[in-house]
Amino acid sequence: MTGAFDEMRGNNGRVRPAYGELSHWLAEVPADVLDYRRREAELLFRRIGITFAVYGEADAQERLIPFDVIPRIISGAEWQLLEKGLTQRVCALNAFLNDIYGAREILRAGVVPDDLVFRNPAFRPEMSGQSVPHDIYVHIAGVDIVRVDADTFYVLEDNARTPSGVSYMLENREIMMRLFPELFARHRVAPVENYPDELLATLKSIAPLSASREPTCVLLTPGVFNSAYYEHSFLADKLGVELVEGRDLFVKDEIVYMRTTQGPQRVDVIYRRIDDDFLDPLTFRPDSVLGLPGLMSAYQAGNVTLANAVGTGIADDKAVYSFMPEVVKFYLGEEPILKNVPTWRCREEEHLAYALDHLHELVVKEVHGSGGYGMLIGPIASKAAIEQFRAKLKTAPKNFIAQPTLALSTVPTCVEQGVAPRHLDLRPFVLTGRDRVRIVPGGLTRVALNAGSLVVNSSQGGGTKDTWVLDG
Amino acid sequence: MLSRTADNLFWLSRYVERAEYLARILDATQRLSALPIAYVGESNEWESAVLTAGCAAAFFRTYDEANEQNVTDFLAFSNANTSSIRSCFELARSNARGVRTALTIEMWEAINGAWLELKRYGNGASSREELSRFLRWVQETSLRYDGSAYRTMLRNDAYWFSRLGVYMERADNTARLLDVKYHLLLPSNERIGGPLDYFQWAAILRSVSALTSYHWVYRESLKPWFIADLLILREEMPRSLASCYEAIVRNLDAIAGAYGRQGPAQRQARGIRTRLQNSRMDGIFQRGLHEFISEFITENNRLGSAITEQFLL
Fold first, then answer.
1. How many domains is chain B partitioned into structurally?
2. Better pLDDT: A110 or B28
3. Do B306 and B223 belong together in one domain?
4. Could you tell me which of A260, A240, A236, A249 has the C-alpha nearest to residue B157?
5. What is the pLDDT of residue A243?
6. N or C, fewer C-beta in 10 Å, chain A?
7. Given an 8 Å threshold on Cβ–Cβ distance, is B101 in contact with A237?
């Protein structure tokens, strides 16, 4: 992709102020030093066991996500804008979910079409008319943001279900501080290490009213075979809460308990990293062995809080996403601070016709997809692939949306031939508690390591970078 | 703490301890089998090793003959044997992954490092030298794990459960060794001692890393009576049954103290310990060494079930 905005050199080749020190340092540091530190970083990651599993790869059951040692820098002013925009966006998301599982005013007003909600597999009828503690549905959001020029940030996805990657944000910083103390001496970087404390404060703030003053929070993981298991254990450790699996819990009289060496102990808040489908075999998929039978009854009785709430997946639907600017205006009466990527909903005839005519220049995604699977990137796809996709699109247009291929911004990255620009995105983590919204300055930067590639997903060969938010 | 976490910690320690014990058995057997037949007699040391490891039945389901190749393979590298050194390390790591939050980074690195290193020994050791290196490495891994636990863990229930695993396994191992070799330890009037037995005795002591300790405790040449005394009743000998039970009782008491509650596990452990404390070697030999050991193994297993029932379910 030519003509992409480089975050260090802008469009005109002049180094942007936030990157001043870094570009000096990059010019000074010998290539072999950089290479040596890169290998050291990999060793550190391997030793502490930060791995992830890629589904469908038997051989590489535990793999490292490549880590790039050159940081990605965001200026203080840019971050302020992002922070405001993210807060606004997540507030609107919560209002939206509260509404569609409650009064449904947005549907009656005709802003969002009924069938898009009610016929959506991610819509949970079990949640209709069900109030959730403090009206918060999305306690933890991992909003994916891409940048296309000096002033324009787009939200790509809201990730309102169980976003992952925050452990990389934290570990990347630790490793960078260990490997490049001299670089930190030249910058004032906002810390991210308080994220676990903020998360714990958020979780405690959403405990059911019936809970004791020191509510018991746990992190519910599907288990060691889950691709994000490392992150689950890492977070539980940092939070100082038990890392539980379904079999560690049981429900009695609509109250959730965990089995401990001292007998049953009541659980008040569950930070669950299990999808809705697998939460409770009595309500959702009966074949799930990961969940906890009876959990939904305890949840519906208001005796336990789930973070995130059940049913947030509807907000992750890419067709619903396309309505987000209207959703923000509807609930908050404000203009959205962060833009949406222009989106053609193939469920609508005109949009479909446009998409079919412009497949070679569009990105086409499944509305329920995630992880970069099952999408078409028009400009780099072969003719045959485009034709194949066209057929798929015509048979089930409702399942797809189309977006222009964005020229994602780039940042210098270590590659085999030295240092070269690579495309990237940003996933900040937005925490919503009863008291307030908390966002740690930074996030997970994912970078596409192959030249020209726009796919940053770790499951498809993407890497990560430390993300620095600077003072001023 | 979660019962599952306690269970994982308990078994994690047991597997590491077991791996070390297997490495010691193989090491001692290798030495014995390298001696001329005139020194050790016609007995099959490799078969004895399988018996001592407590997996003879599984072994003979797979192999017809107990020789160096088969036994080394089965006890060290086999995937089919769930108690091989390889399986122990793999189980230890999967238990460790399940309780990452309860382990210190040092303990995790010891286990994870061992697991990564194990991959280098794909199909086993290619030579005796490599096998020796491997066995030494296994023992070092166990030392590292144990030392990490001792030096870095908070002194709370997680620590006590992990210690319990070590001592329950160790008591079981020492008792098994005695069970297989008891005939060598019977008093001299029932057997004719000779150079044959001397090396067997040395091998027993080597299996529990007590050869040097023996000399410091008794300042005597090897005598079966003393060897039995050392491995059963001497609290200062870290692998003796008495020492293991001193530690088991101490750790169970710490748990009871923290939880404010005594249970069947505590009572049973104290009972076994009291019996060991009140025993004398002559009494044990009078009633029969073999009976004593068999009884102990049964009691030790019963305590294992009591611990599981009281805490780990």
1. 2
2. A110
3. yes
4. A260
5. 93
6. C
7. yes
Cα separation of B227 and A26, whole Å? 67
| Whether A43 contacts chain B with CB within 8 A | no
Q: Enter the tokens of residue B106.
A: 């040092």
Kindly report which listed range (A198-207, A221-230, A436-445) carries the lowest average pLDDT score.
A221-230
Q: Is B130 helix (H, G, I), strand (E, B) or coil?
A: helix
Determine contact, residues B202/B211, Cβ cutoff 8 Å. Answer: yes
Q: Chain B residues with CB inside 8 Å of A47's CB?
A: 109, 112-113
Higher pLDDT, A53 or A248: A248
Q: Please tell me whether residues B232 and B311 are part of one structural domain.
A: yes
Q: Looking at the predicted structure, is the pLDDT value of residue A325 above 90?
A: yes
What is the pLDDT confidence band of residue B200, given thresholds at 50, 70 and 90?
A: confident
Do B178 and B134 have their domain in common? no
Q: Do B127 and B32 share a domain, yes or no?
A: yes
Q: Chain A residues with CB inside 8 Å of B108's CB? A: 48-49
Cross-chain Cβ contact A259/B2 below 8 Å: yes
- Dist. CA B162–CA B304, nearest whole Å: 13
- If asked whether residues B212 and B281 sit together in one domain, one would say yes
Give B6's contacts in chain A (Cβ within 8 Å): 261
CB contacts under 8 A, B 103-142 vs A, are: 105, 108-109, 112-113, 116
Other beta carbons less than 10 A from residue B102's beta carbon: 29
pLDDT above 70: residue A54: no
Closest Cα in chain A, distance from residue B311 (Å):
5
Contact A378, A363 (CB under 8 A): yes
Q: B153, B168, B201: which is the final residue of a domain?
A: B153
Sign of CA dihedral B170, B173, B176, B178: negative
Residues B236 and B271 in one domain: yes
Q: Indicate the residue of B98, B100, B109 with minimum beta-carbon distance to A47.
A: B109
Hey, are the CB atoms on A258 and B161 less than 8 Å from each other? no
Same domain, B164 and B290: yes
The whole domain housing B217 covers 154-313
pLDDT value of position B129 = 86
Higher per-residue pLDDT: B195 or B280: B280
- B262 at interface of A, judged by CB pairs closer than 8 A: no
Q: Give the bridge partners for A145, in sequence order.
A: A155, A426
Among B135, B153, B171, which residue terminates a domain? B153
Q: Are residues B180 and B125 in the same domain?
A: no
Chain B contact for A64 (CB, 8 A cutoff): no
Q: Does residue A56 carry a pLDDT above 80?
A: no
Distance from CA of B195 to the nearest CA of A (A): 49
Q: How confident is the model at residue A242 (pLDDT cuts 50, 70, 90)?
A: very high
Do B169 and B280 contact (CB within 8 A), yes or no?
no
Q: Which of A52, A261, A273 to mutate to test the interface with B (most CBs of B within 10 A)?
A: A261
Q: Sign of the C-alpha dihedral, residues A390, A395, A397, A400?
A: negative
CA distance A330 to A324: 10
Q: Which of residues 112-131 of A touch B (CB under 8 A)?
A: none
